[in-house]
Each structure stands twice: as C-alpha cells, then as structure tokens.
Amino acid sequence: xxxxxFSEYAASLNRKRxxxxxxLRDDRSRVLLVETTYKPEWEIPGGAVExxxxxxxxxxxxxxxxxxxxxxxGTLLVIDHIRTQGVMPEGLAFVFDGGLITEDExxxxxxTDPEIQSVGLYTxxxxxxxxxxxxHARISTALxxxxxxxxxxxxxxxxxxxxxx
Length: 165
Prior knowledge:
Helices cover 28% and strands 33% of the residues. By secondary structure, it is an alpha/beta fold. The longest helix has 16 residues, at 133-148. The protein is globular. The N and C termini lie far apart (42 Å).
C-alpha cells in the first residue's frame, strides 16, 4: 500500500464547520432565545467556532459578545452532527449548559451586538415557532440532558447516544 506524504494526507482530511451555543433557562424551563437581525429564525446565544478556538471558548465568547453575560459554563449537554444543507457544509454543533437565568436578568440585558435585535424567555412550544426544526430538537434534547445530568450525541437534534456525567 502506498502512503501519502504526511502533508498531503493532512491536506486531504475532511473539514467540518463547527458551532457552539449556550442553553440558558429559567426555573420554569423557559429557554433564552435571541432574535437576530440577519435571518428570520431565532437562536440560542452562540455562533461559529473560529480558527484555533475551542468550542467552549466560542460559547463563552459569544455569550459575552451577544448579551454582555460573563459566567462559567456548565457541562457539555449536546454534540449534534449536522448533515450538509444546501451551501452549508456538514458540521458539528455543541451546546453547553449556561445554567439558570431570571426574568429580571433577561430584562436587564442591553445587547450592543448589531446581530441581536431582542432577547426573551420562551417555552419549548413557543420556541418551536421561532427556531429551525433542527434547533428546536437540539434545544429539547439539551433541556432533557440538563435535567438528567447527561451529554447527548445527536443527529439533526435527535438523540443517538447518551452518556451520563
């Protein structure tokens, strides 16, 4: 068997887009969602992982940039494999536990990020009308993972494997 030189092998490896977000919820299991200015669907706080950046660093950075919130992240709740969608390549989405947030804290958020139009707490049923179906499935899975102390591996937001923390 002929082996490629290492530099050619490394250059041939598949590349995946990567995103990281934070699940913030209140004591009634409502989820904090952000309304973006650049697309119709709402999101959880988070964004694309930059070159040489760890997903957990992305989640913390985006939480601060988007909402002005600095807090330690909890456990990794979800790793979701996302298949190619149109022009968007295959990827991985990580969701970290941001813990509980109160209505007063949410009302006090004054985002200076031009990508964020508004912020609010929404039930899972309300979120279904605001976010993409795959994100809704991911949020639902993340809520269950937070309640159960687990990390869940998903395919398009739907659980494939669960690991107890």
